[in-house]
Amino acid sequence: MQLIDKALRFAARAHEGQYRKGTKTPYITHPVAVGMLLLKHGYSEELVAAGILHDTVEDTDATLEDIEKIFGRNVAEVVAGCSEPDKSLGWEERKEHTIEFLKTASNEIRAVACADKLHNIASIMDDVTQGGEEIWTRFNRGRDQQEWYYRSLIDSLGTQGTFPLLEELKTAVQTAFANT
């Protein structure tokens, strides 16, 4: 648990002052939830730490070098695999890259990416329940494009076989987009 505790403290500092898109929910709740999903499914302490850190390089001033120095090469490789390589690209290009990359990614990267997407879609579903369909307008692309992305991710993540987190994601996506 020492590595997980260190990851929690590092991510909390890195994401300080950040909020979930369109909400007043502190951003740190997302990486913590991703880590908890991985822990619940019996993944290693290293992978849980990587899940907690998965957005630090993409969304904060933290670097992969920082992650590797503090948490080791394995954690840094998973964080790198879960980070979009070029945020200057358009939404479609970034999402298509992620979909293609995950088809051949390691099981560890696929597990963290799946936990990330599972928590994201669960959060969206909660927000839709409380605030209605207009919640989709807070995203760069609306409901239809989000549905395409999530369904494509499921296919991509399943290329190498299924696993319990992926089954949970499939169920959540089916529920979120049930009326289409």
Question: How would you describe this structure in keywords?
Answer:
Hypothetical protein af1432, mainly alpha, single chain, globular, 68% helix, 180 residues, 10 helices
Structural notes for this entry:
68% of the residues lie in helices and 0% in strands. It is mainly alpha-helical. The chain has a single domain, classed as Hypothetical protein af1432 (Orthogonal Bundle). Helix 2 packs across helix 8 and helix 3 packs across helix 8. The chain is globular and about 45 Å long. The N and C termini lie far apart (43 Å). The mean pLDDT is 94. Residues 23-130 form the HD/PDEase domain.
Order of helices and strands: HHHHHHHHHH
CATH level-1 class: Mainly Alpha
For the largest beta-sheet, the strand count, sense and barrel status come to: none
CATH topology: Hypothetical protein af1432
CATH architecture level-2 label: Orthogonal Bundle
Give the rounded overall mean pLDDT: 94
* Low-confidence region ranges: none
Tally the beta strands.
0
Count the helices. How many?
10
Radius of gyration computed on alpha carbons:
16 Å
Fraction of helical residues: 55-70%
Count of domain modules? 1
Q: Which of globular, elongated, flat, extended, rod-shaped describes the shape?
A: globular
CA(first)-CA(last) distance:
43 Å
Secondary structure category: mainly alpha
CATH superfamily: Hypothetical protein af1432
Strand fraction equals: under 5%
